[in-house]
C-alpha cells in the first residue's frame, strides 16, 4: 500500500481507523489530469519490478508514545510521533535494490507494508556530494511504487538541510521509498585518464501532473530548445550541443583534478518547503564534476634500516639504505620496480667498549638491505611491492673480551629486509611505512611532481 497525499489524508481522517494491511492501493495520482507536463514528448511512466533485499533490516518496537529508527546503513532515519500508532508495532527498515529510474542509492522497504498513521511520520534521507552531483538537493523528491509497480512522486512539503546534507519528507503509509532528482546530468564515465571521453546527457526524471504529486519516467532528455550552450570549467574539451555532449580529457594530465561541466535549463521550477516556504528556480544552472587522473605516476622510495646498540657491546647506531623507483600505470594496472642503488651500511661510532670488552665494526658492502629485484601489483588503489635481496648478512664485529680473548661475531647470512611494502597510488606528501612492524625499518614514499 502506498502513501496518500497529506491533504487527502486529513480529509479522510474522520472516517479512517488505524489498520495494518499488505493490500496495495491504486495509483494516488490522477493520470488524466491536464496540468503542466514539463517533460518532453509525453514519455510513459516508469514501471519496474520490486527491489531485492540488501543485508539485514533494522527493527524496533514502537507504540503510542512514538519513537525513531535508523536503517542499518545509517542513511535513513524514521521518526514516528506520539499518537501516530494506537499500539505497539514491530517496525523495520529493509534496504532493497533501487529499481526507480534515476533513483539515488538504494530504496527502503518500510515494514509492515500498509501501516497507517493518524499523524504523519517523517523519513529523513542523508545524501552525499556524489548523490547530488549533476542535480540539486532541493530538487530531490520522495518516490514510491503504486499497485501496478509504477513509480510515483510524493511532493507536498519537504525539509532540506544543505549543511547537514539531509532531506526529510512526511509519510502516512509504509511502503518502498527512495529519492529521485527532478533533473540530473547523467555521465557515462566519471573518472577519466588522458584522452578518454565521457558522454553527458541531461535527463528529466519526474513528470508532474498535480501540485502535490506525479510519476517518474524512465528518463527523458530535456528538450534542446530549453538548453543554453554547455560550458566547461577546467582542462579538456567538450563537443556537441543539445541534451547530449561529449567531454574529452586532455592528452597530458600532470595531477589529479576535477573539471566542471554545466548547462542552463530555461524554465521556472517551484519547490515547496515546510512551514509554507516556496523556492522558485528560474533558468537554473545544472552542473556535474568529472575527475581526471594521470595514468602514470612515478614514486621515489627510500628504504632505511636503523638499530641502536646492535653491537651488544657499546651504543653504536647501525644504518643501511636502498633507493628504488616505482613506476605505476593505473590505467593499465601495471607496476615497474627499478633498483636505483643499495648504499653500503654504516656503524657510528665504528668501535667502542665497556664492561671488560671492546668491539670494532668490520665494514661490508652488503649489510641487511641489498635489493636486487622488485615486483609490483595493484590492489585497487593500493600498490603492493615484493622485494628480493641476496647476500645480506648481520653486522660483523671484532671483539676483545678480557676473559674470552679475541673473536669475530656476526656476519651471518639472513633474509634481506624488507620483504615488501605498500602505499596508496595517489599523489601527495611523503608517506612513511613500517613494513615489518619492528620500528627499525621504514619506507619513505614520495610521488614525483
Summarize the structure.
Helices cover 2% and strands 52% of the residues. It has one helix spanning 6-12, and strands at residues 58-62, 67-70, 76-80, 89-96, 107-111, 116-126, 140-145, 151-154, 158-161, 166-173, 176-181, 183-187, 191-192, 197-210, 213-221, 231-233, 237-241, 244-248, 257-273, 277-292, 296-308, 317-329, 334-348, 351-353, 357-362, 371-379, 382-389, 396-401, 405-409, 420-424, 431-433, 441-447. The strands form 6 sheets. Strands 1, 4, 5, 7, 8, 11, 12, 14, 15, 17 and 18 form an 11-stranded antiparallel beta sheet that branches. The protein has a 5-stranded antiparallel beta sheet with strand order 2-3-6-10-9, with no helix packed on it.
List the helices and strands and how they pair.
Elements: H1 6-12, E1 58-62, E2 67-70, E3 76-80, E4 89-96, E5 107-111, E6 116-126, E7 140-145, E8 151-154, E9 158-161, E10 166-173, E11 176-181, E12 183-187, E13 191-192, E14 197-210, E15 213-221, E16 231-233, E17 237-241, E18 244-248, E19 257-273, E20 277-292, E21 296-308, E22 317-329, E23 334-348, E24 351-353, E25 357-362, E26 371-379, E27 382-389, E28 396-401, E29 405-409, E30 420-424, E31 431-433, E32 441-447
Parallel strand pairs: 13-20
Antiparallel strand pairs: 1-4, 2-3, 3-6, 4-5, 5-11, 6-10, 7-8, 7-11, 8-15, 9-10, 12-14, 14-15, 14-18, 16-19, 17-18, 19-20, 21-22, 21-32, 22-23, 24-25, 25-28, 26-27, 27-30, 28-29, 31-32
Amino acid at each position: 500500500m502506498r502513501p496518500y497525499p497529506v491533504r487527502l489524508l486529513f480529509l479522510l481522517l474522520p472516517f479512517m481507523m488505524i489498520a495494518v494491511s499488505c493490500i496495495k492501493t491504486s495509483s494516488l495520482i490522477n493520470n488524466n489530469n491536464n496540468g503542466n507536463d514539463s517533460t518532453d514528448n509525453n514519455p510513459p511512466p516508469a514501471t519496474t519490478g520490486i527491489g531485492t533485499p540488501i543485508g539485514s533490516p533494522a527493527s524496533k518496537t514502537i507504540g503510542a508514545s512514538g519513537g525513531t529508527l535508523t536503517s542499518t546503513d545509517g542513511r535513513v532515519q524514521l521518526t514516528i510521533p506520539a499518537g501516530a500508532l494506537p499500539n505497539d508495532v514491530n517496525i523495520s527498515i529493509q534496504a532493497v535494490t533501487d529499481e526507480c529510474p534515476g533513483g539515488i542509492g538504494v530504496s527502503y522497504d518500510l515494514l509492515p507494508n500498509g501501516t497507517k498513521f493518524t499523524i504523519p511520520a517523517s523519513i529523513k534521507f542523508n545524501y552525499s556530494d556524489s548523490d547530488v552531483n549533476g542535480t540539486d538537493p532541493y530538487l530531490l523528491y520522495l518516490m514510491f511504487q503504486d499497485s501496478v509497480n509504477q513509480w510515483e512522486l510524493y511532493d507536498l512539503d519537504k525539509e532540506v538541510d544543505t549543511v547537514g546534507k539531509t532531506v526529510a519528507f512526511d509519510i502516512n503509509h509504509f511502503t518502498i521509498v527512495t529519492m529521485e532528482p527532478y533533473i540530473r546530468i547523467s555521465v557515462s564515465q566519471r573518472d577519466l585518464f588522458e584522452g578518454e571521453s565521457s558522454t553527458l546527457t541531461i535527463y528529466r526524471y519526474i513528470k508532474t501532473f498535480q501540485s502535490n504529486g506525479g510519476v517518474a519516467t524512465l528518463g527523458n532528455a530535456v528538450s534542446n530548445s530549453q538548453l543554453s550552450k554547455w560550458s566547461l570549467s577546467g582542462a579538456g574539451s567538450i563537443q556537441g550541443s543539445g541534451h547530449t555532449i561529449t567531454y574529452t580529457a586532455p592528452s597530458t594530465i600532470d595531477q589529479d583534478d576535477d573539471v566542471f561541466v554545466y548547462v542552463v535549463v530555461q524554465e521556472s521550477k517551484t519547490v515547496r518547503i515546510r512551514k509554507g516556504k516556496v523556492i522558485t528556480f528560474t533558468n537554473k544552472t545544472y552542473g556535474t564534476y568529472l575527475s581526471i587522473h594521470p595514468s602514470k605516476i612515478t614514486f621515489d622510495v627510500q628504504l632505511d634500516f636503523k638499530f641502536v646498540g646492535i653491537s651488544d657491546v657499546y651504543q653504536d647506531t647501525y644504518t643501511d639504505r636502498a633507493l628504488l623507483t616505482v613506476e605505476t600505470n593505473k590505467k593499465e594496472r601495471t607496476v615497474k620496480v627499478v633498483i636505483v642503488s643499495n648504499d653500503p651500511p654504516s656503524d657510528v661510532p665504528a668501535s667502542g667498549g665497556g664492561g671488560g670488552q671492546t668491539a670494532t665494526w668490520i665494514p661490508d658492502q652488503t649489510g641487511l638491505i641489498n635489493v636486487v629485484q622488485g615486483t609490483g601489483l595493484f590492489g585497487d588503489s593500493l600498490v603492493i611491492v615484493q622485494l628480493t635481496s641476496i647476500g645480506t648478512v648481520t653486522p660483523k664485529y671484532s671483539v676483545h673480551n678480557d676473559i674470552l680473548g679475541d673473536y669475530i661475531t656476526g656476519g651471518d647470512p639472513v633474509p634481506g629486509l624488507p620483504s615488501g611494502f605498500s602505499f596508496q597510488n595517489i599523489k601527495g606528501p611523503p608517506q612513511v611505512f613500517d613494513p615489518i612492524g619492528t620500528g627499525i625499518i621504514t619506507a619513505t614514499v614520495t610521488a614525483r611532481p
